[in-house]
Fold each of these.
Amino acid sequence: MSAVARTAARTALRAVARSAAKPSVASRSYSLLARAATAAPKVSQAQWPRGIKTLDFAGTKEVVYERADWPLPKLQEYFKNDTLALIGYGSQGHGQGLNARDNGMNVIVGVREGGESWRLAQEDGWVPGETLFPIEEAIKRGSIIMNLLSDAAQSATWPALAPLITKGKTLYFSHGFSVVFKDDTKVIPPTDVDVILVAPKGSGRTVRTLFKEGRGINSSIAVWQDVTGKAKEKAVALGVAVGSGYLYETTFEKEVYSDLYGERGVLMGGIQGMFKAQYEVLRANGHSPSEAFNETVEEATQSLFPLIGQYGMDYMYAACSTTARRGALDWAPIFEKANRPVFEALYKSVRDGTETRKSLEFNNRDTYRQDLEKELKEIDSQEIWRAGKVVRSLRPDYKQS
Ligand SMILES: NC(=O)c1ccc[n+]([C@@H]2O[C@H](COP(=O)([O-])OP(=O)(O)OC[C@H]3O[C@@H](n4cnc5c(N)ncnc54)[C@H](OP(=O)(O)O)[C@@H]3O)[C@@H](O)[C@H]2O)c1
């Protein structure tokens, strides 16, 4: 895809995301519910249901918190004296900010004046001087400072922003990155504020679309510093306010290690590596691009992986032929053995900060956008993904974007 086509595709994607951001019937009724709840008679705290659950996850007991624990009147009462200052309006800022606003929270957005986020925020209805401010001004006005700048920007802006995070405010992150790797990022929170985390397990766009469908993303929560004794409760409540369906507890360290590991592994890096290796062996043995792509990517994404998501691995195996099943059962442990050392090396590289340093170095470059574009273009021009475009165009429901 040419740079021009890419820009067009990105614009189209933004348009889709923006149209997805327009209130649906479901979200309208949800925000109506939120507004009605604002006007609803006050309920005493003793009457609020408490529904924290301890669940047995394959033999390990874990506490989960659900949205049902925080009905809207309770949520709105809890935050009635707070201003949520959302700093940054990228993927998470957009999703979390709009959800919190629809839930009746008092939300303001802080971004660079005149930047792309400033423009996008206005498109979503944030008003300069009322609910949209330059970053420093938003922090001054906020009681809960939600740092949703990109991780590299959190580090780059910290010297200017840190003095504004004064006693009594709460500092909120959606990733443990900045504070856990403080030796590299230099992000060291003041000692007199609560520092909490709500990390949605998905993109900010999904945070928004699931909320609008009346569902909710699952998120993890954690506490880095508890000055008030209320830090965990606040994290859970904020998690619900930004659109989580249920929340599980972790630590800042575990959140960042598992997140960096997962995205470099099976979620993104590993899957591209596996797909490409399998495809290239098929091609080297004389199989056509369409056959190699179908047997590698198309069947995975269109047929088998959704079954794993819905019902689990055994169900997917059971849904396949006896021949496929026998082979998969035999080869799974071979892949596990071959991959285990790679995953061990990856975890070590995450844990010792190597991955963080690489990420900060790359994402802070002046040429960051061009360098990224170049690498993504290399993937796009690989034969497997060029073949994929043609295969996708053959789907009966294919729509030219
Ligand atoms: N994206 C995800 O899927 C995801 C999932 C879970 C958690 N998280 C975490 O959520 C946080 C936010 O992530 P994100 O993906 O939403 O961020 P993002 O899209 O990368 O954030 C971009 C935001 O940072 C601002 N920014 C970039 N450089 C800046 C600078 N030097 N000075 C001031 N502002 C700057 C941008 O403003 P301009 O438009 O003005 O450049 C924009 O508002 C991160 O901690 C991330 O790890 C992300």
Amino acid sequence: MSPVKPKSSVKEHFPTRLRGLETIASLVSSAQETPEPISTEVQGIIPSWINGRLLRNGPGKFEFGNTHYNHWFDGMAMLHQFKMEKGQVTYMSRFLQSDAYRKNSEKDRIVMSEFGTLAMPDPCKNFFQNFLSRFEKIEATDNASVGFVKYKGDYYVSTETNFMHRVNPENLETVEKVDWSMFIAVNGATAHPHYDPDGTTYNMGNSYGHKGALYNIIRVPPEKTDTKDTLQGAKVLCSIVPANKSHPSYYHSFAMSENYVVFIEQPIKMDLLKIVTCRLRGKALSEGIYWDPKQETVFHLVDKHTGKVSPVKYHTKPISTFHQINAFEEDGFLMLDMCCSDDGQAINNYLIQNLRKSGDALDEVYNTMCRSFPRRFVLPLNVTSETPSDQNLNTQTSSKATCVKVCKDKVFCQHEDLHGDDLYEYGGLEFPQINYGKYNTQPYRYFYGCGFRHLVGDSLLKMDLKDKMFKVWHQKGFYPSEPVFVPSPEAVEEDDGVILSVVLSPTQDKGTFLLVLDAKTLEELGRANVPVNIPYGFHVYTEKGHTLQIHAIFILICYKFLCSQKTVFIVNAVTACLSTFENLFCFTTWIHPQ
Ligand SMILES: [Fe+2]
């Protein structure tokens, strides 16, 4: 693989073109579960103070019988556990026993639609029955393949629909299916909640009611009132009206500082009409998602304590973002750091057939995709009618980002790059992680992530915000997943600890290992070789409908309303489609011993 200079016609966001990319088809192939813990072979030294479990979630099964998924995000959730104790590591994995997984397995074909896959009618049905099945209701998937999240001390796996599953982190067994909509009026929640130090959890989710689509900020209390508690006590802190109610933005996550939730309304839009009618039209849900570069990105600030939405809106150019790095308040400004792309169409390229390409075709997929880079935005918190217009309000000498009041309640922001030109050679950075336990919502110096000289991460990076220099771990032919920072027991400095990452190889059978790096130097301390293959993938879902005639009428009425632009309505299909995005990435969680 050799870097070549970009052509003059190549836009800034396609800074590095590559040739000769290695095929990674085996990384997006189905795997067998390992339901009982197995030993690993440790090379080097894994510090004996690391005692706990690394949990990972992602798609692990891409076909049932003769049917197969189209999009990487559609695969069935596979849960992985690396248990580390006294320098030794065991590994186990289980498929999430979701309704989607069980129904697909029972029929030995895909009977539930997912983000990029529309389930085909039962081949045993006659023509008329097949026709009617196009009017069946699409239900949100419970294939929670995105990540592990924590509410009230319990572990759940989540996607972006209204369904989560509580799981036992010790044996990865599926315990209980939980429905957000049974507790609050939302049709889903992201798989990236934020946590206050006391355990209070914040999240976001859309609702689709008679007032149209709304973005909702959610707060879940830290304590259980009963041992059977799940989401009891959850509240909608506030709701934000989309710029276009029938085309709300897709969001994968949000940012949080000490006092504010920051919602990023980006130009990745959901065409609710297309989503609602996808089965009728015989199209996958993913076709209702589109990038609209004519629209600016808007930051909405919500006071965490009062739920009040700031009347001041912070605009910037069209960007897409999946993961934020950190946000903190300093001297009357909110510093917002996140990974951004200047193009939001990448989601459509993560088809399984693209990921399994080779040669020039694979290079072409990569070279037409926009890379993601870390950027800082500086948002002035005290904007009033007295605030002068048309001048840079950023008085923080630590950042070159600008923010200008352009009219009443509108500030336009220009970012500062949190990197030098050398990051272009590593394909940008995604899957950002920080020392979350001590530095989330606080000023910080370091973040970690994956470099992307391939469609999946091919290096691990540690960025130092002091001088924007970074350290790299890279081994040719190996592909590391999201890095997780684990602080050492006597940690004093921000980077006292280790980085853990699951590393895969597409060419070596059973070439998987858990990598342990010194977080200060990014040098390898040790690795645990796992004698099984682990995929790099994701999941999907759909459930067959109920009373056909009723749903046919329902769909047609909704279609009429939407065409007249008079209303939008509740559609689980919307949230079903959202789940797919998250699957872009496999997520890891570190659990300290009890
Ligand atoms: Fe994510």
Amino acid sequence: MRLAVFVLASALSAFALDNGLMKTPPMGWLAWERFRCDIDCENDPKNCISENLFIDMADRLSEDGWRELGYVYVNIDDCWSSMKRDKDGRLQADPKRFPGGIHKLARYMHDRGLKLGIYGDMGTHTCGGYPGTPLDKIELDAQTFADWEVDMFKYDGCYSNATEQEKGYPLMAKALNATGRPIGYSCSWPAYQGGLPPKVNYTQLGEICNLWRNYGDIQDSWDSVLNIADWFFENQDVLVPAAGPGRWNDPDMLAPLDAEEQRLYSELLPGD
Ligand SMILES: *[C@@H]1O[C@H](CO)[C@@H](O)[C@H](O)[C@H]1NC(C)=O
Ligand SMILES: *[C@@H]1O[C@H](CO)[C@@H](O)[C@H](O)[C@H]1NC(C)=O
Ligand SMILES: *[C@@H]1O[C@H](CO)[C@@H](O)[C@H](O)[C@H]1NC(C)=O
């Protein structure tokens, strides 16, 4: 049994994205499910997408014992950026809601043993209508995130088509690698292509992404949780072998639970 586990693990890691990250499933906090695209900081200062929200979460993770359990990622989702790129064409944070900028926020995380994740989109615009990272902006934006010392990047797929995604997701993997900074790479690609073969190639995903969103967003309801759990259950024969060190299925906010199940599955399989 032990030998079998070892052989399986090394076979998997040979095909995983080679950035040394996420040998175990990433754990942390992401803003979207609860805070959405609330940008009304005047009327809703506690809940709006602003640096204060992420600083607040960082304090909770580091002061309330979560960090010690492994919850180290604090991840920004959509609606963080300014509607306009800067004079050099770079993405920039909304100046009112993130007056300190993303680099300073990343330092805040690092000072507390945490990591910062950020969000972009393969299309012309993000799902929320902010500037996207289409094919011709991939290298520039990857470098910007590396310059800001960001630790993880979620690449969404709104306003892009299958042809662009086929080019863009691997290109971003190369661009992130070329920055020289290890940046965990989360691909929403399969969620835009139905989540299953033949449209989705999980072998390829494992080579270019550390994790991938397979299926729809989780909504704030138990029905939504059940719906996602059912889909993963029904398709487990495809999904379980896709996962391993450095390469994980991501059922959205169920990630910690599902990842633990995946770990158990991958340990149990060789002995079956
Ligand atoms: C880039 O890719 C090479 C080859 O796969 C790997 O050895 C290296 O660690 C990667 N670097 C980063 C920063 O991801
Ligand atoms: C996808 O989008 C690109 C660029 O916007 C366009 O040139 C191409 O025709 C589109 N492809 C399909 C299959 O819709
Ligand atoms: C899936 O991707 C792998 C690795 O990139 C490739 O070798 C294989 O041919 C692809 N499979 C299909 C059906 O396209």
Amino acid sequence: MKIYTLLGCVLFFLLAHTASAQKNLVSNGGFEDALSDWTADNTAKITPWDYKGGKNACAIIVYNANNWVGLSQSVRIPKNTLGMEFSGWLKTINVVKGDDEWKGAIFNIEFLDKADKKIGDGENIARLSGDHDWEQAKKQVKVPATAVSFRVLLAMGYASGTMLIDDITAKVLNAEEVAKL
Ligand SMILES: [Ca+2]
């Protein structure tokens, strides 16, 4: 009997672990609930005209390349997280950026320590210019040991044109996936 209880516990643990590994930590990543849970500049709008999933996406339309314009969301990292996968669907229309390599339609992640201070340079998940139909950007990264939260940044970084954003996700990787990083 004991062995079955033990097996039951192991199975429960594995299932629970799998469930937590697949949960999207980003709230309202598909913009179905307008801009709730996001901190957004006025230029970021919800659009029902062009989206990847559901009924809405977020659109940022910028007419000059003089500013950083976008939206962000800060999220607590679950305990014992060693690695994460970030993904999102982006589309760009006529995005024109300055000379610097880091400018354009940008999808970045910043890791923050317990004092809310940025750790290192962060991770660039995607940087687009020109015209792109909906495409998925995805990256698996190691989480810095001192990180307690991360911030998702989606922006037109000193670039003009249109950026569309949908289905942003952040998921915890299991030990096997982290070992491959
Ligand atoms: Ca959507």
